[in-house]
Write a structure and sequence with these properties.
Elements (H helix, E strand, L loop, with lengths): L11 H27 L19 H14 L4 H14 L1
Helix pairs in contact: 2-3
Length: 90
């Protein structure tokens, strides 16, 4: 006596398709959630903070210029030229 399971199992290529669908349904949501949580999608939820670079003040530039002169990176003539250029921009 031959016993058959009802419903009959699908052919092998259909089993492969069913297995791939199961894998797809498991992997896609997992990968999407990993991307979302890791920030790869660069989603900005909420207000967040904006970082804006500020141009250094004339005083800061003069201090940097003085440090460059003291370190020997520029000559006294270059220091005077740059200093007068900075003060004229003000």
């Amino acid at each position: 006596m031959i016993l058959f399971r009802y419903p009959l199992p699908p052919p092998t290529n259909q089993l492969f398709i069913i297995a791939m669908k199961k894998i797809f349904l498991i992997l896609v949501p997992g990968l999407l959630s990993m991307l979302l949580l890791s920030g790869c999608l660069n989603l900005q939820l909420g207000g967040g903070s904006k970082t804006e670079t500020q141009k250094p003040t004339v005083g800061e530039q003069l201090i940097d210029l003085q440090k460059a002169k003291e370190a020997g990176a520029i000559t006294d003539a270059e220091y005077q030229a740059q200093k007068s250029r900075l003060l004229q921009q003000k």
